[in-house]
Design a protein that fits this description.
Blueprint: E1 4-15, E2 18-29, E3 33-37, H1 44-51, E4 59-64, E5 67-68, H2 73-79, E6 80-83, H3 95-105, H4 110-123, H5 139-153, E7 157-161, H6 169-184, E8 188-193, H7 196-202, E9 205-210, E10 213-218, H8 220-225, E11 231-237, H9 244-251, E12 255-259, E13 262-267, H10 270-283, E14 288-294, H11 298-306, H12 310-313
Parallel strand pairs: 3-8, 3-9, 6-7, 7-8
Antiparallel strand pairs: 1-2, 1-4, 4-5, 9-10, 11-13, 11-14, 12-13
Helix pairs in contact: 3-4, 3-5, 4-5
Length: 314
């Protein structure tokens, strides 16, 4: 059984009268990619910065491999690496110099630092930008420099705050592969994102946070299955209408919508029901021209749980 990499216990963080995170409880296990999904201002970044010991809890505590962020922050900082949402550098810094300095800080010898920096920069497509000044880099390239710090450090827990924001589509896919590689090499990865596709692509488990509170947690499949009859079986059939007997049989599976020669059935676990539906059409001598099963998106899950739209909130 995997051990707990991060345990968040009754964690609350206030800034004056404003409660950014309200009594959060979470368990994140080693060697998994865990996502915090929610709109900007939901408390994701506050939680990550507290795990990284940048902030201290107002109440409650957070443990990283059993070490308290409030009482053993000096130990936690050796275990955690963070790529900030806004890259941290001086405008005149050069990526190569910045990353070499970072490698030395986390314990590499000068010769090993030069080797690992080049390796990581080539992996992220940064080598050609190594001697540019930071202000000359695009927003996406700056994000890659920030991520490079974590890849160089190889911490036991990697915190990535909006890791692919401002990054082009092709680079996003490459960075997602890098994140999985980091996990495969033994690092627990925690990602804060409001990008549903990113969450589905890289996260094994997700916590939905909204207005500082945990609203739901589970695997992507578990979260999607939490919506009653959230799957849609969409069928395009031959003819202008279907027999009443077939329609009545289909209603037993869920709510039905019809439009022209297309029928939609709202069901739970559509992938399990679709074969039965096909069999009913066959027995009633109605030819299916096209059939597909659509599952809910994480946006649908977010809306069902919170009553808000993730995209609009973001």
């Amino acid at each position: 059984m995997k051990s707990k990499a991060v345990e968040i216990v009754n964690f609350t963080k206030k800034f004056g009268d404003f409660t950014a995170v309200d009594n959060l409880n979470l368990e994140i296990y080693e060697n998994e990619v865990f996502g915090l999904l929610g709109p900007n201002g939901s408390g994701k970044t506050t939680t990550l910065l507290t795990i990284a010991t940048v902030y201290k809890p107002t109440s409650g505590d957070i443990y990283v491999f059993g070490h308290s962020v409030t009482r053993e922050d000096y130990v936690v900082r050796k275990l955690v690496g963070i790529a900030f949402q806004e890259p941290k550098a001086m405008w005149i810094d050069k990526p190569y110099d910045l990353l070499t300095w970072h490698a030395r800080i986390v314990g590499y010898s000068m010769s090993d630092a030069k080797k690992i920096v080049r390796e990581v920069m080539e992996l992220l497509g940064l080598w050609e930008h190594r001697n540019k000044q930071f202000y000359q880099l695009s927003g996406g390239t700056r994000k890659k420099v920030e991520l490079a710090k974590v890849l160089i450090q190889k911490p036991r827990v990697a915190i990535l705050d909006e890791p692919t924001a401002q990054v082009d589509v092709l680079s996003k896919h490459a960075l997602w592969d890098v994140i999985k590689k980091l996990r495969d090499e033994g690092t627990t990865v925690i990602i804060a994102t409001n990008d549903m596709f990113e969450a589905e692509r890289v996260c094994e488990k997700i916590a939905i946070i909204y207005k500082g509170k945990l609203r739901a947690m589970g695997t992507i499949s578990e979260l999607k299955d939490s919506i009653p009859r959230g799957d849609v079986i969409e069928i395009q059939y031959e003819g202008s209408r279907i027999p009443e007997k077939l329609f009545a049989s289909l209603e037993e599976y869920g709510r039905i919508e019809t439009q022209s020669s297309t029928l939609r059935i709202y069901v739970e676990k559509g992938e399990e029901k679709v074969l039965d539906v096909i069999d009913l059409f066959r027995k009633n001598n109605v030819k299916i021209l096209r059939i597909m099963v659509k599952e809910p998106t994480l946006d649908d899950v977010f809306t069902y749980i919170t009553g808000a739209k993730l995209r609009e909130e973001s």
